[in-house]
Amino acid sequence: MARAESDQALAVLLKQLNAKPLGLYDGVRLFRLNQPGGGTLTLSVSCAREQWRVQNSDSAKGQPSFYNTPFLSAKGINRTWVCTAPGRVLE
């Protein structure tokens, strides 16, 4: 299992960037990342499909930007802490 964790770049990156788990919404896990200089990014990770994307960002002034970008591959993410850690369900 440790090998799968080390091979999964997104899981390693989220840990190194101190991503804060926000919870689960409609089968997708949400994470918040602080941006250098202020503001945040929200990432969504689909463990079932092994995919991820940037969902939205907030500038240092709190101005939101929403993205409709396609999901990117995150093969193996479902075996990492990103998907196996307990999470609260958001409504």
Description of the structure:
This protein is α+β, with helices and mostly antiparallel strands. Helices cover 20% and strands 36% of the residues. It contains three helices and six strands; from the N terminus they run ααββββββα. β4 (51-58) and β5 form a beta hairpin. 19% of the residues are buried.
Entry summary:
The protein is α+β, with helices and mostly antiparallel strands and 91 residues long. Helix content is 20%, strand content 36%. Strands 1, 2, 3, 4, 5 and 6 form a six-stranded antiparallel beta sheet that branches.
- Report the portion of residues in β strands: 35-45%
Number of helices: 3
**Poorly predicted parts:** 1-5
The total beta strand count reads 6
Q: How would you state the average pLDDT, rounded?
A: 89
Please bin the fraction of helical residues: 10-25%
Query: Span from first to last CA?
Result: 32 Å
Q: Tell me the overall shape.
A: globular
Counting copies of identical and different chains, the oligomeric state is single chain
Indicate the structural class: alpha+beta
Whole-angstrom Rg: 13 Å
Main sheet specs: 6 strands, antiparallel
**How do the SSEs run, as a string of H and E?**
HHEEEEEEH
